[in-house]
Amino acid sequence: MQLKRNAAPGVDGVTWEQYGERLEENLRELHARLHRGAYRAKPSRRTYVPKADGRQRPLGIASLEDKLVQRAVVEVMNAIYEEDFLGFSYGFRLGRGQHDALDALAVGITRKRVNWVLDADIRGFFDTIDHEWLMKFVEHRVGDHRLLRLIQKWLTAGVMEKGKWTESKVGSPQGATVSPLLANIYLHYVLDLWVHQWRKRKARGEVVVVRYADDFVVGFEHEEDRRQFLEDLRERLRKFKLELHSDKTRLIEFGRYANAERLRRGERGAAETFRFLGLVHICGKSRRGRFLLTRHTDSKRMRGAASAGNGEGPSLPRPSALLIPPRVVPGRVARVL
Fold first, then answer.
1. pLDDT band at 2 (very low <50, low <70, confident <90, very high)
2. How far apart are CA 153 and CA 69, in angstroms?
3. Which of 46, 152, 204, 248 has its CB 3.0 to 4.6 Å from that of 121, i.e. a possible disulfide?
């Protein structure tokens, strides 16, 4: 099981060491409860980690047995959904981590005709996932009612904070083992399939997209495509109880011709930059004057991760890989398309 043995305990306070003292007996008893329908999901224990903007990110720490069962369910469901998820979906998937997403985005920007970039942020995504829609999406591919009941139990188990239980009517706790997969399923139906159809049916030029969990970037060849896409995207998200964060969602001119276009219009300064997965992306130039996508660490993100200091927050790409221009890897282009 790919679980951290030094992870913080849930509401019952049970640690790996304590559970392991009677491991075989505990696992047999858990197995029996699952089969006779007596398993009950415990509430998540609420804790907080600092965000880059100074606010606190709420996490839900599941109990040890809930983690074990969730990990087993994730293994089963991954085998189903890895056949469905699209190529531009990254995050919490085997062989599709942060560096893979960054490489794919670099290939899309440098090898495709990208002149505009949408840097999108869904407001409070994990806290606003609609349970009814999520269960409909899962039921579309999962017919085992035992698995469906387990997911429903975790979604409605609630949260314990300072001894007070709070009901969970929406959302999936960040920190729960099953939450990343459920998030990917939700966005697969709400965003990925829709984007795939949009660029086939509505786009006039090339459109590239890379999504890592709930963080995604879309590149456009034509300005009219980017405006229409943003309008349609907002409408699409509203149907599923989601919305873009107005302060963190930006449409900018970005790509190999961005700096030249600014000069042509008489505008001063370099093209705008955007942040994705802890890196600031910049329109640069090589020594020969050719377009070069450069990246460096987002200082705010680094400070936020350092202040968390407990291993609960997101990991950042290795500093040694940040200032090197992205390399083109055969096959990466297909992942962006």
1. low
2. 12
3. 248
Give one DSSP letter per residue of 25-50, joined into a string. HHHHHHHHHHHHT---PPPEEEEEEE
- Report yes or no on whether pTM surpasses 0.85: yes
DSSP state of 194: H
- DSSP states of 147-172 as a string? HHHHHHHHHTS-EEETTEEE--SB--
Asked whether residue 336 carries a pLDDT value surpassing 70, the answer given is no
Backbone angles phi, psi at 60, to 5 degrees: -115, 110
Q: What's the start-to-end Cα distance of the chain, in Å? A: 33
CA atoms within 13 A on the CB side of 152: 12
**C-alpha to C-alpha distance for 222 and 199, rounded to whole angstroms:** 12
| CA 205 – CA 207 distance, rounded (Å) | 7
How many C-beta neighbours within 10 Å does residue 86 have?
A: 15
Long-range contact list for 226-235, CB < 8 A, 24+ apart?
226/116, 226/118, 226/251, 227/251, 228/202, 229/118, 229/198, 229/202, 229/203, 230/118, 232/198, 232/202, 233/120
- Cα angle 85, 89, 93; round to 5: 80
| Amino acid type, 72 | A
3-state DSSP assignment of residue 58 = strand
What is the rounded distance in angstroms from the CA atom of residue 288 to the CA atom of residue 294?
Answer: 15
pLDDT averaged over every residue in the chain: 87
Phi-psi region of 269 (alpha: psi -120 to 50; beta: other; left: phi over 0): left
Tokens of 54: 């100074």
In which residue are the tokens 């229409």 written?
A: 228
pLDDT by residue (tens digit) across 40-87?
Answer: 999 999 999 887 777 888 899 999 999 999 999 999 999 999 999 999
For 173, the token pair is: 């706790």
Structure tokens at 49: 């980690």
Q: For residues 326 and 106, is the Cβ–Cβ distance under 8 A? A: yes
Beta-bridge mates of residue 151: none
